[in-house]
Design a protein that fits this description.
By secondary structure, this protein is of the alpha+beta class. 18% of the residues lie in helices and 36% in strands. It is built from 5 helices and 20 strands. It has an 18-stranded mixed β-sheet that branches. The chain has a two-stranded antiparallel ribbon with strand order 1-2.
Length: 343
């Protein structure tokens, strides 16, 4: 399947239903961006093929704010970029949050980028370059009929607070309250490589979760790079439910790295077993996961295309408009809906 070219001014539909570039040009003040609207476990994105595109980070940040604005014409949790590979990596990935900040990684988004990379290059496994690390990805058997499924191996998870940095007078924080947070719950701090604060709770309180997440968003001196915050319910021996206030996004239905960090923290604190398959749920869906004692976490989950199209981006105002939808992936949408029905 051809991947939409982000540099195209307009497009024409192919027999496959996807689109091909009509002409390629560079834009400074305004542009039309082609993308695929996709999601991993309900974590939705605009995905752009940025291979060969020269554009500075500030410009990508504005495009992310435009496409991910929930009040705008497209709306998503963030912007994903499929980027060029190098001698070690088949391709790369970048992820910008809805506020324009760039995340170290996004595991729900990684599956979507991996699918795009596989289809663009005709492969089914790869090593992917992330902002500060790398990850192994491969095509997995469908977790449900018609649900394209990608496996990703990320890590190792780190407990070292000096790497965040989080300056609280100790080098690790496992199942301990953190002075300064607006909650006296015990948190486990895990970076994978995104920084996460994980609290295990009997019942998730969204208001308390948002209060902690919003405080972390203020980037206090002891937490300058902020943190993702998750409350986790343990549901049986092999099920977790994760709710996350995501750095740069806010309360979200799904965050892949939070699911991975929560799974590792659950194993670390003996709420789940290392090297055993665990189903990790959230409001957006689910993934299957397995954490190893060395900090490596494998997740297997969907990479679902919803629609392909384009939008005009006003860079001066960070606004997306004139959205054109070239194709709906109705079979994939229906397959995912069937997979999570009654979960």
């Amino acid at each position: 399947m051809a991947f939409p070219d982000p540099r195209a001014v307009d497009a024409r539909t192919t027999r496959s239903g996807m689109f091909e570039p009509a002409r390629r040009r560079r834009y400074i003040a305004a542009m039309r961006i082609n993308f695929i609207k996709c999601h991993g476990s309900g974590n939705d994105f605009a995905l752009v093929d940025a291979r060969g595109v020269v554009r500075d980070d500030a410009e990508w940040a504005v495009i992310a704010r435009a496409l991910a604005d929930r009040r705008g014409a497209v709306g998503s949790d963030g912007l994903l970029l499929l980027t060029d590979g190098d001698g070690q990596h088949a391709f790369g990935m970048r992820m910008f949050n809805s506020d324009g900040s760039e995340a170290e990684t996004c595991l729900n988004g990684l599956r979507c980028v991996a699918r795009a990379g596989f289809e663009a290059l005709g492969i089914d496994q790869a090593l992917v370059r992330l902002k500060t690390s790398g990850a192994e990805v491969r095509r997995d058997p469908d977790l449900a009929p018609g649900v394209v499924t990608i496996s990703e191996l990320a890590g190792p998870a780190s407990l070292e607070l000096d790497d965040w940095p989080m300056t609280i007078g100790r080098h690790q924080n496992v199942q301990m309250p953190i002075a300064g947070l607006p909650s006296d719950r015990a948190f486990t701090a895990v970076a994978i490589p995104n920084p996460h604060l994980i609290a295990f709770v009997d019942t998730i309180d969204d208001a308390e979760l948002v209060a902690v997440g919003s405080f972390c968003e203020t980037a206090p001196d002891w937490l300058p790079n902020r943190a993702n915050v998750s409350f986790v319910e343990v549901r049986g021996a092999a099920e977790l439910f994760v709710r996350t206030c995501e750095r740069g996004v806010g309360l979200t239905d799904s965050c892949g790295s939070a699911m991975a960090a929560s799974l590792f923290a659950a194993c670390l604190t003996e709420r789940a077993a290392f090297d055993a398959e665990v189903t990790v749920f959230n409001r957006g869906g689910l993934v299957k996961g397995c954490a190893a004692p060395d900090g490596m976490v494998r997740l297997s989950g969907n990479a679902t295309w919803e629609w392909a199209g384009s939008a005009a981006i006003d860079l001066a105002r960070a606004i997306a408009g004139d959205v054109r939808v070239d194709r709906h992936f109705n079979d994939e949408i229906a397959a995912w809906a069937a997979a999570i029905e009654g979960r």
